[in-house]
């Protein structure tokens, strides 16, 4: 069996001006820390744990905010949870965002708390934009992120573990930058659209060649 991963386009990196415009659009100041996730709001996508984590992180990082881009049946429950935890102003519910690159441009940390993923395009996009990323070590996400090198993996829905990973990125700019750069390299090497096309062509050549042999 040959595995050919789905590929993503490798975008140009955001300029300082583009990042500033995106943060202004979402009402984020320079001294605030923005964590974010892009995806449908479903129970198995785990956004609840990000809301709980940002509530804990704000005890240390008073400017920490969470941006959730996407819509879905869990929206009322997540809004209620933010109110219950006393942080309604710190969780931004954007709904469906057509120009999703404006979300990525504003982020300091990308988080993917899914309980199961075969492969996830939003994580690949975040890594391609050099955004330091954190994901649950579930499904195929451990195949995308090399833990401690191209991102951080946490075992699952534990607020303390999510906070510890986010805290490391927010406190250490050099570490954050290294994760971002290595994440982009990882996507370029293994998950780019070009790599996918080359892999498919290679499989076709192998299959057709074997049929041609007596």
Q: If classified by CATH, what would the architecture be?
A: 3-Layer(aba) Sandwich
The CATH homologous superfamily name equals Glycogen Phosphorylase B
Here the CATH topology equals Rossmann fold
The level-1 CATH class: Alpha Beta
**Overall mean pLDDT:** 95
- How far the N terminus sits from the C terminus, by CA atoms, comes to 22 Å
Category by helix and strand content = alpha/beta
Largest sheet: 6 strands, parallel
Strand order, sheet with most strands? 3-2-1-4-5-6
Radius of gyration: 18 Å
What's the total helix number? 9
The sequence of SSEs as H and E is HEHEHEHEHEHEHHH
The structural domain count equals 1
Would you count the extended β strands for me? 6
Strand-residue fraction? 5-15%
Low-confidence stretches: none
Description of the structure:
With 214 residues, the protein is of the alpha/beta class. It has one domain: 3-Layer(aba) Sandwich (Rossmann fold). 46% of the residues lie in helices and 13% in strands. The protein contains 9 helices and 6 strands; from the N terminus they run H-E-H-E-H-E-H-E-H-E-H-E-H-H-H. The protein has helices at 16-25, 47-57, 75-84, 101-104, 121-128, 141-144, 159-171, 173-190, 193-212, and strands at residues 33-38, 64-69, 91-95, 109-112, 133-136, 152-154. Strands 3-2-1-4-5-6 form a 6-stranded parallel beta sheet, with helices on both faces. Helix 2 (47-57) packs across helix 7. The chain is globular and about 70 Å long.
